[in-house]
Amino acid sequence: MAEIAISPILQVVFDRLASPVLGKLRELCNLKHNLEKLQQSLPIIQAILEDAEERQVTDKAVKAWLLKLKDVAYDSDDLLDELAAEITLCESHCSTGSQVRSLLLPFEPSRRLFRIASDLEKMLKVLDKKISEGLHFNLKEKACNMQSESAAKNRDTGSFIIKSEVYGRGKDKEKILELLSPSFHGKIIGDVTIIPIVGIGGIGKTTLAQLVYNDDKLIGSFDLKLWVYVSDDFNVKRIIKAIVESATRKRCKFSEMDILQSELQDSLCGKRFLLILDDVWIEDPCEWEKLGNLLRGGLGGSKVIVTTRSNKVASMVGTISPYYLTGLPEDACWALFKDRALPLGDNEKYPKLVSIGKQILKKCGGVPLALTTLGSLMRLKREEKDWLDVQKNELCYMDECQSQILPALRLSYSHLPAYLKRCFAYCSLFPKNYEFQKEKLIHLWMAEGFILAQEGDRQLEDIGNYYFDELLWRSFFQEVKVGKHGNRKVYKMHDLIHDLAHYVGGNEFVKLEKVHGVKLARARHASIIHNHRPSIIPQALLNAKRLRTLLLMSPAVFSGELSFLPTNFKYLRALNLSGYGIKKLHESICELMCLRYLDVSNTSVQMLPETICDLCNLQTVDLSGCSHLHKLPSRMEMLINLRHLFLVGCEALTCMPAGIGKLIHLQTLPIFIVGKGIGESITELRSVNLRGELNIKCLENVGGPAEAKTANLKEKTYIQVLRLFWEDNDGGMKIQSARPTHSSGMNTGRNFQSSGLWHGNHGGDAQSIDVEEILKCLEPHPNLGKLFIRGYPGVKFPQWVLPNLTVVVLINCKRCENLPTLGHLPYLKLLYLQGMDNVECISREFYSIGTQRPFPALKELTLRKFPKLKEWSKGDGREAFPCLEKLIVSKCPELSTSPLFPSLQHLELHDCHPSIITSMENLSLLSVLVVENIPGLTVLSGKLLENNTFLASLKISSCGSLCCLPSELEKLTALKSLTICSCQELSALPEGLHNLKSLESLEINECRNIISLSDASVGGLSSLKIFSIENCTNLTSLSAGLLNLITLEQLTIVDCPNLASLPNEWRNLSVLRSLSILCCPKLDSLPDGLQYVTTLQTLEIRSCHGLKDLPEWVDKLSSLRSLAISDCKNLTSLPDGLQHLSKLQHLSIQGCPNLESWCKQEKGRKVRRSVSHVPHLYIGSPEFQK
């Protein structure tokens, strides 16, 4: 049963009724009496709503009233939205000098405005009536949370536990015990360490605390062990009494705080104690300190474990980082579920129920409470149908879930303020395991009016950010790190939390995952999850005329427009069409006057209809990834409430609509293209206070320094990422001739100040100086975190004060002769420099004169395409690059020296002078080394290898003159990966290769002088897992030592035309899983010893023209899952044993014409029929298969 939160929507309605514009309509539209009456009712109704929202759980009449009140409030809000939109249209079309305008209103009202006002007058009367009805329920102000009290009473916990009934918490217990050990010290308050355990309801926090409390390892570690159940009633007196009673095992009769404090001090004084405070909810630091300060009286080494659902509580009480408790591992989930559902060996009697049960587990998300509840539910059910019903149904629809699982989770929900309850329920529209972005969800909340404006100038986005963080802190959301380096954050909900959202959302929030059987009559917000074709969107949904949200969450591949008209949903606030294969939007979208959020990202939309500019309420338009979009509507300036315009990935967009600067509320504009027409210049950025990322393209169109300065970038406090692009900067660069200005140019005699960002040389012609002045005037705010400049045609860089930079990227600044000064930047972590054609020396200025430790935080540095660079200054002996971990130097053919890098761990040298390797010989901490395309390199520096004993990965590629590898290679005992590619003169691997006992991957590619591999060098690689030898055209045999590689999992042999046979003894390859043999035309058979590799799962043979048949023993490869044979023209038959490969999932035999002929014969047809059980079976050409 959904719980109705009405307070926020009523607040929005009342706020709108009090707006100044509506005040001017009072007399004209007969609204005065209704407005005054409602404003009198506001304080009364707001005071009793909290009690009503709590009583609805047990009082059906109150719930029915709230439901009707909510409907009327929604309808009133819809009309107010319509009215506000119509007023805006009237203002835009008003005629100056109008008599009505001059007398009563600042605009000429339309007939439609009077109609809406009339409807609003009637609706306000209904609203007032519904409010009055609520006064008869004897509701009270600020009622206590009876539901929470009742739940807390039923939940009371103690320290007792039956250890044999707990599964999968052994590792968690050991980690907590480590934190309790005397050797662990952390930050402490007084003599007490406080350890928070955080997790969602039902995850097992209390159980873990009980396991730890009763563990034998704690015997003798503490003088006292105390257990107190706290709950949401954080009564300090009650908690002190409970601690005293737990310590003395006697009833405490005192009630005065002073006496209780003395009793507590006496109980703890001189004793080392372990205190469990179970289920803590308090978020008030002052209240916590009243108790926390009293816990300092014990001996050093005393510990307190606090279990809580809230990160905020953990942050407030903890003296060490919280321990986050996650779901049980899969095996423990099954053990716990089986113990309840299939006891006494029933799992062996009912094997079909076992497979269904393992699917049911997925609903539980590793939560022990859910596993125990569902396991107990299935205990007496032995019919397959009953189990399938549970597997198919959502937990929130099951009675057992509603009575046992959801109440534990609903406690967290009941503690939310009303404005967060709606925000949380809204998330039920997402599919399970859906990863959502923080900003997108906040923009959706804004569109729905869920975010309540506050006094002052605080932006709605900032308030929404607070809302989101509150839900995150309270464990309703989980953070997920994605991206190559895990540096991007998305969020998701635990499956059971999602069930809770679905439960509390009720029929107001509808998630359509199937077409039929969904109640849509009361739906205000809907999402379509299933991959529906547009034509089968339910008619019932099209009839939901009051729908506010429509999220099409599953991509649909089709061409053209939507199958429904936007006019189906007149009151829509949010429309998501992301990934929905449309090419255009219907012009009737202008009818959606309430629309605030429109997402058409990742579609094939080429342009938007001009009518979209009539949607004056639009706040967010997302066009990200619309790669075909070439134009924006010309009247975009009419979208006066637009706050976010997402354009990332709109590569075909070549210009901006005129007047974008009139959108004074705009915060997100990731791309701005400078044009030459009126309203297209960079001055349009002057009045918009942008946030986040800004890419300014076509800067060659800037008229001059004065125009650039007008963009006012230096005042844009919230821009974190700035990218500046000039076009046509490839050799014959067209430098836009700037309009004449009164600027006198750069003061080239000015001395460098350490607070500036950079400066360069002082040369250059008048044309370049003008461009340099333009860049100078584009100086961003000092808060900027990341700066990218591409195609800058000036000779030198300006002085900018950007102390907070973490990333600097400069690409194709081809006329620059010196690098900017960057060494003084305290937070710079990544520096990428490319295409500096005229830089010949990295001078002392790069390091920043006067800085003792240049580049103090730099972690990664890349120099690429510096064709004239010859010298790299060492910075006058200063300790430069103290933290540099990764260095890439590429296409710097003249550079022969480099400074010292004391912390370097990752080094890549591509297309460089061979002498630069010698300059790196003193490095000693390398873990990754890549040497590629170094002309003239005959021998790799042995000293470099000898000094870097921690080297884990070594790649040597395209060094055509390299004739041998140094003997020092064998000393790299930590090496795990060795790759040698395109070294044509290399004829052998070093004999000491067998000493590389840690080597796990060995790849040899295009080393055409290698004839054979030494048995001694390869056979001793005792940790090798992956071995690949490719394009070694003169290789005639593989080392017999290869067959001693007992850890080998993957073997690949490609394009070795002279390899006629493989070693025969394969018994020792006991973990080999993958074998690929490609383009070895002389190979005529597989070695018989291969039949003993029963772990082999994948076998691929291609272009081995000498192969005539597969051996009969192939059926002994019992683990084989995939067999692929192609372009083996002389293969004439298949063995009968294929039918015995029971695990085979994929069998593909292509490009074998003799085999196709054989398959037409009786025996061939029989073999084909015998492998028909293979799910993915492809034998012969498509025509042959038919």
Offer a few descriptive terms.
about 1200 residues; alpha/beta; Single alpha-helices involved in coiled-coils or other helix-helix interfaces; seven-stranded parallel beta sheet; about 30% helix; globular
Question: What features would you describe in this structure?
Answer:
The protein is of the alpha/beta class and 1186 residues long. Among the domains are: 6-93 and 107-135, Single alpha-helices involved in coiled-coils or other helix-helix interfaces (Up-down Bundle), CATH 1.20.5; 163-324, 3-Layer(aba) Sandwich (Rossmann fold); 330-405, no CATH class; 416-498, Winged helix-like DNA-binding domain superfamily/Winged helix DNA-binding domain (Arc Repressor Mutant, subunit A); 921-1057, Ribonuclease Inhibitor (Leucine-rich repeat, LRR (right-handed beta-alpha superhelix), Alpha-Beta Horseshoe); 1060-1185, Ribonuclease Inhibitor (Leucine-rich repeat, LRR (right-handed beta-alpha superhelix), Alpha-Beta Horseshoe). 29% of the residues lie in helices and 15% in strands. It has 32 helices and 36 strands. The protein has a 20-stranded parallel beta sheet. Strand 26 (928-932), helix 28 and strand 27 form a beta-alpha-beta unit. This is NB-ARC domain-containing protein. Residues 682-836, 1088-1152 form the R13L1/DRL21-like LRR repeat region domain. InterPro entries: Apaf_helical (IPR042197), Leu-rich_rpt_Cys-con_subtyp (IPR006553), LRR_dom_sf (IPR032675), LRR_R13L1-DRL21 (IPR056789), NB-ARC (IPR002182), P-loop_NTPase (IPR027417), RX-like_CC (IPR038005), Rx_N (IPR041118). Residues 6-96 form the Disease resistance N-terminal domain. One of its GO terms (molecular function) is ADP binding.
